[in-house]
């Protein structure tokens, strides 16, 4: 399918991170190849139906918003189609050499034995397959056949064969209507296997089994004989006994491997020598078999090796950069101690299994049922931190995602149950007999710290408690037991009041922690990358996606413990790192930066002034079409239509020869529109794009009508019912023809783009974004309201890990200074901004002295804006701050530590109070940085005064991810942690010289009084996004004044208004290193727009018929993308063609029909509807 | 509350549980928690919160049956059963007061074991009452004693038991180890 051998970038992993990074690069007009070892794309997200906070999916929001026509606007869970992206599934990276900008990579493709280009997903094979295996997609909760769909919803969705389960009975190959199944065993004859054993009986039985499977088997009675045989006939696989009289199997292995390094060897051994076999595997054996064995164990192993050796082939490619987006793995709860009886008690499931249970494509169709007896679930519990935050499980980290996932699942359970009870009550009221009304479900989450660390998380948790009555119990559950009779699960736990209680549940969901993905280790060896102690790819400090090896970047949770939005951000940052390497390479080779975009001659000829000339090509699919409908009848009908120039029938359009024949037929006519009637349209997407280029017809004037669905179904029906199927085929064809006849042939406009950018705020995020933009060749204006760039890094001292932030700042400032494309404007404000994505006109005001007369005003032009105005520590008057000098904030302490203004005596007894005014209304969000800061400062105070008594009063320790390690360390280092209840917060009295802190200690339920030398308040972070600025830019602020992103998960950096992006702490609180990553990611989002001097607007873009427009401005309010404005003299409605997404809201709301979508006209729609109901006359069929 | 971090013999026990995050796993899994005056979690918190007196006078550690559930499941991998044992030892040497009776009981229990290789119940109780020096105490146990006698659970004092040999050495070794620890 893909003959191309050079790509700009290779992305390993087709999960959301991989997709995001690939789409980012593809939109910069880079050629990207994605490989994934699974037979379907989408990664873990294909298994999750709902994400919080919206409780919907929403992956499609990652799709391109400009140059939409390059790809398909289609559900991303189903498929990814972009003309710059190739996707290879069931493939792995198997080798890498070379240097950044010129990597030679090997891709190991595993055959699925079904030709994806020919499989139409009709499902006939599945009905005849006799073998059943557990379904991996549903986490083993259901089964599928040996030939199966890897995911239920992908498009195209070719079947694949599970070769371990397949018996090669051939039933599927016989029934397949398109001949897509390639289950031939003929080539096995060429696979030679040498069996070496001193026992004749073993040799004989092996020979019999292997010959039966179609392999060529050869025998040798000793090691010497085997070596002789290998000389005369090369073999691919050798099965050898270990214990043989003369030459042992191990010795044979050494000899044979020396002479034939590619020979695959399997050791056969009795129990007594298993260790020898394991040793042998270390010296080159592929596997071992324990005697006595059955064909059931031997044959699948041989077949697996056969595939690996013979059938799989390696593709060799050249790429400039490599992005590892291999995602995450999960802790397996049955490993090691299995204290929760996973796999033993039927109703104990992992959170992923639960996601499948509540999914509509899951085994129960979304029903809340117990797995053992199918009864409705009444009581369900979540157990958090299974395999996380557990040193005994080698997991000194927090898995970051499970708290919110559990809360989401609990809320969904409640919602599903509410729907269930509503259904039950309606069916009762209508008098139908029903199962007993299921009512409410009791949901309990057992947790240690509720880590609601993200932007809207805390409110989501609060809402779960108040609105959905999800119960939270703060206790780690030690184990589970099951009652004998009802098989309910018993949980013993510690209630809030300290008493020990037990509760029974129908189902228990284990929130299993994250682990490195399976292939991480092998990839680290292939790519020579170091791993962190937890086993994730190691990245550099202050660059969360850059690995120590240049040219290789990690995106998403491959670099460790990310949720969706963080993965998406980091993927964009990774795309920037990779894009930088590609850009450098492009510059050094003096290649033209753009390949297709700015070519002077248009790709497609202008057909807008030509009469419609439609060509119809119909696939006959052997004799199947004629069995259903008479081709002559179709020819007669369509030849009556003068707009149809030709109708031709081609056999097997899906094959290369069929396609070529079709292309010849079309080029013989002067057609300007092409309809292909064949199978699934998505099989043809790439082919059509290529054909469009050669024919010079725009791809949107070519279409595929799927007529084979009814044809295949008709094949199994009685002849007298055929007319219904024939009518369906005709109707589909007629519709397709009508739609194309009415299609709008005008070529899209080109929108000029000013390739400069404006970055507002010169903190670390803004500077990193500016550098990334400048390094990619764009001029950047960086404006800063204060005298000095650097933002919060001007006072921050160290990171939690101990890296110096001052050094980081200095390095960044040096780079800014040396970068000629960045112009820094200090003491500057943005006072006006007009225009739309691609062409902004801004006015800045520079006033070096406040209040002085030296104000300067300048105009700037740019195509994109990045908002990086940052945030600052929240001021407070709580806990006597401001009235007692010993009560200070974290910032003050940080500054004093940096300036060494703290004496050991001052650090005698220090009380740190966390969550001051935070995580409660009105500032109901977690600032995420304060808990790690407290740990960091505690350590530094202890360094200063080893006898320091440090008390940390906290609500939930938000040490997400790997910062958990520092929490563990601080606990061990004598720092005292006391949780407090927000309803009874600690109190500080300032009447004495030293402030006295009192609180009720919740574990002992006793009052505690601490006389402190220093009280440090963690007040959290508030954003610096002035109302004026937001108004000037036309962007929104969220409840708490942070930048309102277009979508919290899928477009976390974009404003709803296209062309404006944000990074750093103005998005949400985050650490300096994370802020820098968002800077790179925001630059990627901007470069997507800026990479070409002009962008072709998309086909489906709304226009205004000004003569009909009454200027009621309803469309301006209706437009969800802010693409519409009133011009300056209030005479016209303007549409920004880049921002318009063609949703049609304006057309629907317009009272005069003045706002229309040219690609989707009413006339086209009505004619198409008419075509559906037209009928061929019966006698013609 | 004053900073008394680096104080007294309890410090070694405190160090054992220093990294405790009060997750409650130990208490949830403790089969004897129902009988304890403080849950294990509270005991650790007392140690961490510098309430040594509360910790050493608690009955919690005495009731530990060394099932090792808590040690096996502690997410921080803390040696909790060992900490319980250490507290028991400390309670004997520190003798915080108010535990005359239980001290006497344990003393005589071990003495009985040392002498006979097992407990001689009537001898144990007689010597226990004598050491406790409480004239009313025997009456408190009278009912229980009669029940045991009826079920033939008490060996009468006149039944001769073989004196044990070799146990002295074990006791000697334990004493040696305890003084070192």
Instruction: Give me the Rg of chain A, rounded.
Output: 33 Å
The largest contact between protein chains, plus residue counts on each side, is:
A-B, 40 and 37 residues
CATH fold annotation of the largest domain in chain B: Fumarate Reductase Iron-sulfur Protein, Chain B, domain 2
Low-confidence stretches of chain A: 430-438, 594-600
Radius of gyration based on Cα positions of chain B: 19 Å
The counted number of beta strands of chain B is: 0
Which key features would you list for this structure?
heterodimer; A: 1181 residues; alpha/beta; Rossmann fold; 5-stranded parallel β-sheet; 28% helix; B: 181 residues; mainly alpha; Fumarate Reductase Iron-sulfur Protein, Chain B, domain 2; 10 helices; 57% helix; disordered N terminus
Account of the protein in words:
The complex is a heterodimer of chains A (1181) and B (181). Chain A is of the alpha/beta class and 1181 residues long. Chain A has 29 helices and 54 strands. In chain A, strands 1, 2, 3, 4, 5, 15 and 26 form a seven-stranded mixed beta sheet that branches. In chain A, helix 1 packs parallel to helix 13 (564-589), helix 9 (351-358) runs parallel beside helix 10 and helix 20 (764-775) runs parallel beside helix 21 (805-818). Chain A is globular, with a radius of gyration of 33 Å. The two termini of chain B are 29 Å apart. Chain B has 181 residues and is mainly alpha-helical. Chain B folds into two domains: 10-94, Alpha-helical ferredoxin (Fumarate Reductase Iron-sulfur Protein, Chain B, domain 2, Orthogonal Bundle), CATH 1.10.1060.10; 100-180, no CATH class. The chains are: A alpha/beta (1181), B mainly alpha (181). The interface between A and B is large, with 40 and 37 residues.
């Amino acid at each position: 399918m893909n003959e191309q051998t050079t790509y700009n970038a290779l992305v390993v992993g087709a999960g959301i991170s991989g997709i995001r990074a690939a789409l980012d690069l593809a939109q910069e007009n880079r050629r990207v190849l994605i490989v994934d070892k699974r037979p379907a794309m989408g990664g873990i997200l294909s298994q999750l139906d709902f994400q919080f906070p919206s409780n919907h999916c929403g992956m499609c929001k990652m799709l391109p918003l400009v140059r939409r026509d390059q790809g398909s606007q289609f559900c991303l869970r189903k498929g990814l189609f972009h003309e710059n992206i190739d996707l290879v599934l069931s493939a792995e990276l198997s080798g890498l050499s070379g240097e950044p900008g010129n990597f030679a990579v090997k891709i190991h493709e595993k055959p699925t034995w079904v030709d994806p280009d020919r499989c139409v997903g009709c499902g006939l094979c599945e009905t005849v397959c006799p073998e059943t295996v557990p379904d991996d997609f549903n986490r083993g909760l259901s089964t599928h056949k040996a030939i199966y769909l890897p995911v239920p919803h992908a498009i195209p969705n070719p079947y694949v064969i599970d070769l371990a389960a397949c018996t090669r009975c051939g039933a599927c190959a016989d029934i397949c209507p398109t001949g897509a199944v390639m289950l031939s065993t003929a080539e096995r004859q060429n696979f030679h296997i040498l069996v070496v054993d001193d026992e004749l009986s073993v040799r004989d039985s092996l020979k019999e089994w292997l010959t039966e499977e179609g392999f060529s088997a050869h025998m040798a009675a000793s090691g010497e004989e085997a070596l002789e045989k290998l000389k005369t006939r090369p073999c691919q696989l050798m099965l050898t006994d270990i214990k043989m009289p003369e030459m042992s199997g191990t010795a044979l292995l050494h000899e044979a491997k020396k002479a034939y390094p590619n020979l695959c060897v399997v050791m056969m051994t009795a129990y007594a020598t298993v260790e020898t076999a394991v040793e042998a595997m270390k010296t080159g054996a592929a596997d071992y078999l324990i005697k006595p064995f059955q064909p059931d164990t031997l044959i699948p192993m041989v077949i697996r090796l056969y595939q690996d050796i013979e059938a799989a082939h390696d593709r060799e490619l050249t790429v400039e950069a490599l992005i590892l987006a291999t995602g995450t793995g999960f802790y397996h709860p049955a490993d090691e101690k299995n204290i929760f009886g996973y796999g033993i008690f039927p109703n104990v499931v992992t959170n992923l299994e639960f996601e499948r249970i509540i999914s509509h494509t899951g085994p129960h169709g979304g029903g809340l049922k117990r797995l053992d007896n199918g009864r409705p679930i009444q009581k369900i519990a979540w157990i958090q931190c299974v395999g996380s935050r557990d040193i005994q499980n080698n997991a000194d980290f927090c898995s970051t995602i499970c708290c919110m996932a559990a809360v989401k699942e609990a809320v969904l359970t409640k919602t599903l149950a509410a729907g269930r009870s509503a259904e039950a009550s309606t069916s009762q009221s209508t008098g139908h007999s029903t199962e007993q009304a299921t009512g409410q479900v009791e949901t309990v989450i057992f947790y240690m710290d509720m880590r609601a660390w993200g932007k809207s998380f805390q409110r989501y948790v609060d809402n779960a408690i108040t609105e959905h009555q999800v119960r939270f119990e703060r206790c780690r559950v030690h184990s589970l037991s099951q009652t004998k009779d009802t098989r309910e699960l018993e949980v013993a736990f510690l209630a809030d009041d300290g008493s020990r209680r037990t509760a029974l549940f129908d189902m228990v969901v284990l929130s299993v922690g994250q682990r490195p993905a399976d292939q991480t280790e092998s990839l680290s060896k292939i790519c020579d990358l170091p791993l962190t102690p937890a086993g994730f790819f190691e990245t550099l400090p202050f660059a969360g996606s850059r690995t120590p090896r240049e040219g290789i970047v990690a995106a998403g949770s491959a670099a460790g413990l990310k949720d969706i939005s963080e993965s998406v951000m980091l993927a964009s940052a990774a795309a920037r790192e990779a894009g930088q390497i590609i850009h450098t390479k492009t510059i050094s080779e003096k290649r033209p930066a753009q390949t297709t975009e700015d070519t002077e001659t248009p790709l497609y000829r202008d057909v807008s002034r030509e009469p419609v000339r439609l060509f119809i090509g119909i696939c006959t699919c052997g004799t199947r079409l004629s069995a259903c409908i008479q081709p002559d009848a179709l020819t007669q009908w369509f030849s009556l239509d003068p707009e149809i120039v030709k109708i031709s029938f081609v056999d097997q359009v899906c094959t290369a020869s069929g396609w070529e024949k079709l292309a010849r037929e079309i080029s013989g006519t002067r057609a300007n529109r092409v309809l292909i009637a064949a199978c699934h349209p998505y099989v043809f997407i790439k082919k059509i794009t290529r054909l469009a280029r050669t024919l010079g017809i725009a791809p949107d004037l070519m279409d595929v009508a799927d007529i084979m669905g009814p044809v295949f179904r008709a094949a199994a029906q009685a002849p007298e019912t055929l007319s219904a199927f024939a009518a369906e085929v005709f109707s589909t064809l007629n519709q397709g023809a009508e739609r194309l006849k009415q299609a709008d042939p005008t070529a899209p406009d080109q929108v000029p783009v000013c390739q400069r950018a404006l970055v507002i705020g010169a903190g670390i995020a803004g500077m990193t974004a500016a550098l990334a933009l400048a390094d990619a060749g764009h001029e950047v204006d960086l404006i800063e309201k204060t005298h000095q760039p650097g933002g919060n890094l001007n006072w921050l001292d160290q990171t939690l890990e101990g890296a110096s932030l001052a050094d980081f700042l200095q390095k960044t400032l040096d780079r800014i200074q040396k970068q000629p494309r960045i112009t820094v404007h200090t003491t500057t404000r943005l006072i006006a901004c007009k225009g739309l994505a691609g062409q902004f006109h801004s006015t800045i005001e520079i006033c070096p002295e406040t209040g002085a007369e030296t104000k300067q005003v300048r105009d700037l032009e740019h195509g994109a804006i990045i908002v990086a105005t940052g945030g600052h520590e929240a001021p407070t008057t709580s806990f006597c701050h401001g009235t007692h000098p010993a009560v200070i904030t974290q910032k003050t302490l940080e500054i004093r530590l940096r300036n060494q203004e703290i004496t050991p005596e001052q650090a005698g007894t220090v009380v740190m109070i966390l969550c001051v005014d935070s995580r409660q209304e009105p500032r109901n969000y977690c600032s995420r940085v304060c808990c790690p800061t407290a740990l960091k400062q505690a350590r530094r105070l202890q360094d200063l005064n080893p006898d320091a008594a440090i008390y940390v009063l906290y609500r939930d320790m938000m040490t997400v991810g790997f910062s958990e390690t520092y929490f563990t360390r601080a606990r061990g280092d004598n720092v005292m942690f006391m949780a407090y209840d927000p309803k009874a917060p600690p109190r500080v009295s300032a009447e004495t010289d030293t402030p006295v802190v009192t609180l009720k200690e919740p574990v002992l339920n006793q009052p505690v009084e601490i006389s402190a030398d220093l009280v440090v308040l963690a007040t959290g972070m508030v954003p610096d996004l002035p109302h004026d600025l937001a108004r000037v830019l036309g962007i929104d602020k969220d409840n708490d004044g942070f930048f309102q992103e277009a979508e919290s998960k899928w477009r976390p950096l974009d404003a709803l208004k296209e062309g404006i992006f944000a990074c750093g702490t103005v998005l949400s609180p985050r650490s300096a290193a994370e802020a820098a990553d968002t800077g790179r990611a925001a630059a990627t989002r901007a470069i997507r727009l800026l990479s070409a001097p002009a962008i072709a607007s998309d086909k489906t873009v709304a226009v205004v018929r000004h003569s009909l427009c009454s200027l009621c401005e309803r469309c301006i309010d209706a437009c969800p993308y802010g693409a519409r404005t009133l011009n300056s003299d209030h005479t016209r409605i303007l549409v920004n063609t880049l921002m318009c997404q063609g949703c049609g809201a304006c057309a629907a709301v317009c009272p005069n029909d003045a706002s229309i979508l040219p690609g989707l006209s009413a006339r086209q729609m009505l004619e198409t509807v008419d075509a559906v109901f037209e009928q061929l006359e019966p006698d013609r069929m | 509350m004053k900073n008394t971090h680096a104080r007294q013999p309890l410090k070694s026990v405190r160090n054992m549980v220093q990294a405790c995050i009060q997750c409650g796993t130990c208490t949830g899994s403790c089969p004897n928690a129902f009988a304890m005056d403080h849950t294990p979690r509270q005991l650790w918190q007392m140690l961490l919160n510098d309430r040594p007196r509360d910790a050493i006078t608690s009955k919690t550690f005495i009731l530990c049956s060394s099932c090792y559930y808590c040690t096996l499941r502690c997410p921080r991998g803390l040696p909790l059963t060992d900490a319980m044992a250490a507290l028991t030892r400390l309670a004997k040497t520190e003798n915080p007061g108010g535990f005359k009776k239980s001290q006497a009981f344990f003393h005589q229990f071990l003495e009985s074991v040392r002498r006979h290789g097992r407990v001689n119940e009537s001898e144990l109780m007689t010597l226990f009452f004598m050491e406790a020096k409480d004239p009313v105490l025997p009456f408190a146990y009278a009912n229980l004693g009669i029940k045991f006698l009826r079920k033939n659970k008490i060996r009468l004092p006149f039944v001769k038991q073989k004196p044990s040999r070799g146990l002295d050495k074990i006791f000697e070794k334990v004493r040696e180890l305890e003084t070192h620890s």
